[in-house]
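B., you asked whether I could sanity-check this one before it goes into the benchmark set. Here's the sequence:
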Amino acid sequence: PAAAHVGKLVLESVDNPGQKLSMGINTKVGKRLCKSLGEDSKFLDDEQMEVIKTDSGWQVSPNVSAANETLLNSKAVTEPQDLKEGDILAVGREAKDVSKMGMRVSFSS
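And here's what the prediction gave me:
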């Protein structure tokens, strides 16, 4: 069987709908890249996480040395995780229930 076509990953600001980032290749996501999504980008590390294109879809891999945790649906990401339509990526602290810079995951061809 042919490999599934894996399209682009789109991250859309939860707080500022319409503000989006679209990626077609592995990308380190951090403060500078997310600046257009809103002021909460200041809570991100320079390299907060990496989004990785795989044969079957997209994954997020956290920078474990970042000051704040990378969150996926309000849970801290400690190892690469698969991304699904509608997931929310953010930065913060799971233990303190703090979440900033929410970005909704979607995909485009």
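One thing to flag: The beta strands are 8-13, 20-23, 27-29, 49-53, 58-62, 69-72, 75-76, 81-82, 88-93, 98-108. Otherwise nothing jumped out at me.
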